[in-house]
Design goal:
Layout (H helix, E strand, L loop, with lengths): L2 H17 L14 H6 L5 H10 L8 E3 L3 E3 L7 H12 L6 E2 L1 E3 L2 E3 L3 E2 H8 L10 E5 L5 H8 L4 E5 L3 H11 L7 E4 L13 E7 L8 H11 E13 L7 E2 L14 E2 L1 H10 L3 E10 L16 H4 E2 L2 E5 L7 E8 L2
The protein binds S-adenosylmethionine (SAM).
S-adenosylmethionine (SAM) binds next to loops.
């Protein structure tokens, strides 16, 4: 099977998932159409497409979605095939979210995303049989964990084209998985679209210039009684307080509001969510986020002061994160 025919088959499979009479998500179909994908001009999509087209397609003898997502086993491929695949996968560097193992090739990613997943997996409403929206899905690591937790369908939204391309690469080897990733922002989703039982927004809200609008749009995607899983950076401070960095936060130039825990709870309350609760608070350590061979650029260690790891290089408090749950009435 050539990678191109595989990709055509994958699109057809995704069309079927979205147009299913239960899912009733046909409003999203334009975002997986060939004409939409052909129209993407940003993020060097044309180059990623070429890389995807030359990616060799192999049939995995086994798929194991656990803390490490394993697709295929080492002895599924000859040594030569494995070398070629490894070289092709390295073209998708930087791999930030994972870990993955493809046919024995260990992709040691910047983030140990299994650590975040373990903080929430037993606290959220069980995903069995649910339709899930994963906003800011990156390369789909969490979307695949959601499928493995029993979701009927996961729709991921990821506007950053290199991460979207990584998902397309992974999908080559697991075309029948009930996960669809769209290369768009949440803002492009037709409103309202209250078709999802669980909506995840993890690591996204502090990148928004208008966090309240983000929460309201997340709510518009939830069906009545559905659950929001919101993960964010937080800072210490009273209710009403948010840190608005002057320019960068931990070397990131696109951070707008980092709320205190009580502020984010209040935002959710103001947006009409009910049953708001905090299920996790953690400090990000270098065991969870670090440079690796598959993400060889700067990471958390260079974002913190060498003399005081409790402060970022800009003098802000170092990253603390929280996970909150909230329901739509
Ligand atoms: C910090 S990463 C978090 C990835 C993953 N959810 C996690 O928790 O590790 C934030 C991601 O959200 C995406 N993003 C930012 N704004 C978005 C928006 N308005 N709609 C959808 N995705 C967005 C970014 O491209 C980025 O990949």
């Amino acid at each position: 099977m050539t990678s191109l025919s595989n990709s055509a088959a994958a699109i057809e499979f995704q069309e079927n998932l979205l147009s299913d009479s239960q899912a009733r998500l046909s409003k999203l179909l334009p975002f997986i159409s060939h004409s939409f994908l052909d129209s993407i001009k940003k993020g060097d999509w044309a180059r990623w497409r070429q890389r995807l087209e030359k990616l060799t397609c192999h049939q995995p003898s086994r798929i194991k979605i656990g803390d490490r997502i394993e697709i295929g086993q080492s002895n599924d491929l000859s040594k030569a095939e494995k070398n070629i695949l490894e070289e092709q996968l390295r073209e998708f560097i930087p791999w930030r979210k994972g870990p993955f193992n493809l046919f024995g090739i260990e992709i040691d990613t910047e983030w140990r995303c299994d650590m975040k997943w373990s903080r929430l997996e037993h606290m959220i409403a069980p995903l069995e049989g649910r339709r899930v929206l994963d906003v800011g899905s990156g390369n789909g690591y969490f979307s695949l964990r959601m499928v493995s937790a029993g979701a009927d369908l996961v729709v991921g939204l990821e506007p950053h084209i290199p991460y979207y391309a990584q998902f397309c690469a992974l999908q080559r080897f697991i075309p029948g998985i009930p996960a669809v990733l769209l290369p768009i922002t949440l803002e492009l989703i037709p409103r309202p679209l209250p078709r999802f039982d669980t909506v995840f927004s993890m690591g996204v809200i502090y990148h928004q210039r208008s966090p309240i609008d983000h929460l309201l749009q997340l709510k518009d995607c939830l069906c009545s009684g559905g659950q929001l899983v919101l993960e964010t950076l937080v800072v210490d401070g009273p209710i009403g307080y948010s840190l608005v960095p002057r320019d960068c936060y931990a070397r990131m130039s696109n951070v707008w509001f980092i709320p205190s825990l009580s502020s984010i709870a209040q935002w959710l309350d103001r947006c009409g969510f009910i049953n708001v609760k905090v299920i996790s608070e953690s400090t990000t350590e270098m065991t969870e986020q670090r440079s690796t061979a598959w993400m060889p650029y700067k990471s958390l260690d260079s974002a913190l002061l060498a003399t005081n790891p409790n402060q970022t290089v800009e003098g802000h408090p170092s990253p603390k994160r929280a996970i909150l749950l909230a329901d739509k009435a």
